[in-house]
Design brief:
Layout lengths: L6 E6 L6 E4 L4 H12 L6 E6 L13 E3 L3 E16 L7 E5 L5 E6 L16 E5 L2 E2 L5 H9 L6 E9 L26 E4 L7 E4 L3 H18 L4 H12 L4 H12 L6 H17 L2
Parallel strand pairs: 1-5
Antiparallel strand pairs: 1-2, 3-5, 4-11, 5-10, 6-7, 7-8, 8-9, 8-10, 11-12
Helix pairs in contact: 3-4, 3-6
Family: Belongs to the GIPC family.
Protein name: PDZ domain-containing protein
Organism: Colobus angolensis palliatus
Length: about 280
């Protein structure tokens, strides 16, 4: 099937003219098109948000873009190093990645070790742990490295913060109390980006798909310390083709084998998806 000829508007989040991009089918190609529009290297782009220039993790670009969505690209700003001592098992970080080689902080848990370090903010990309570069690692690999660091031993995080416009400097991103910005998209159709294969125009997710994906994303966070709506929706899609938890586990192994999901996690995911299916009729 021919790649859809769709044109999207884009800006750099810290301020730029509006560019127009088209002809991409996955996140890496999207970043390359944005970079070309603004004369920067694709590796300068940390992540993109939809319909907001702010570092707002609720507006993060995942695997789907509404056909009317406005894309804001957040580029590399200052690099900073922080020393952390792991005084308890959990650091209080939730990690996600941009699908193109950068893992970054999506959430910081209130009262956690990381929450007490003012220099660390939501949206910061993790470039190195103890001078070991993690560029190119997936979110689950980075979360595992952080979990496995020994307790009571200091370690260093090298972080890159997104470049900010003047009105954004100095704010530490916490759950927003601001009024929700007007949604630009009609929400009826979306461009679904895929890591393998061409992008496709699809109907927006159903109530069941949205509810189930949210539940699965919550489980990914509690079990693995990551959030990934695209991974969650892939798992929900996989469940539709299966009739039992055993069959679901086998399908997950063939589609997402590199994650090596533990059995108890797969059982919880199946239960959460079944619960969403019943709730949505």
């Amino acid at each position: 099937r021919a790649r859809p000829r769709l044109v999207f508007r884009t800006q750099l989040a810290h301020g730029s003219p509006t560019g127009k991009i088209e002809g991409f089918t996955n996140v890496r190609e999207l970043y390359a098109k944005i970079a070309e529009a603004f004369g920067i290297a694709p590796t300068e782009i940390l992540f993109c948000t939809l319909n907001s220039h702010k570092v707002d993790m609720q507006k993060l670009l995942g695997g789907q873009i509404g056909l009317e969505d406005f894309i804001f690209a957040h580029v590399r700003g200052e690099t900073k190093e922080v020393e952390v001592t792991k005084t308890e098992d959990a650091l209080g970080l939730t990690i996600t990645d941009n699908g193109a080689g950068y893992a970054f902080i999506k959430r910081i848990k209130e009262g956690s070790i990381i929450n007490r370090i003012e220099a660390v903010c939501v949206g910061d990309s993790i470039e190195a742990i103890n001078d070991h570069s993690i560029v190119g690692c997936r979110h689950y690999e980075v979360a595992k490295m952080l979990r496995e660091l020994p307790k009571s031993q200091p370690f260093t995080l090298r972080l890159v913060q997104p470049k900010r416009a003047f009105d954004m400097i100095g704010q530490r991103s916490r759950p927003s109390k601001c009024p929700v910005e007007a949604k630009v998209t009609s929400g009826r159709e979306t461009l679904r980006l895929r890591s393998g294969g061409a992008a496709t125009v699809e109907e927006a997710p159903s109530e069941f798909e949205e509810e189930a994906s949210q539940k699965v994303d919550d489980l990914l966070e509690s079990y693995m310390g990551i959030r990934d709506p695209e991974l969650a929706s892939t798992m929900v899609e996989t469940s539709k083709k299966t009739l039992s938890v055993q069959e679901f586990a086998r399908c997950l192994d063939s589609v997402l084998g590199e994650f090596a999901f533990p059995d108890e996690f797969v059982v919880e995911v199946w239960a959460a998806i079944s619960e969403a299916r019943e709730a949505c009729g």
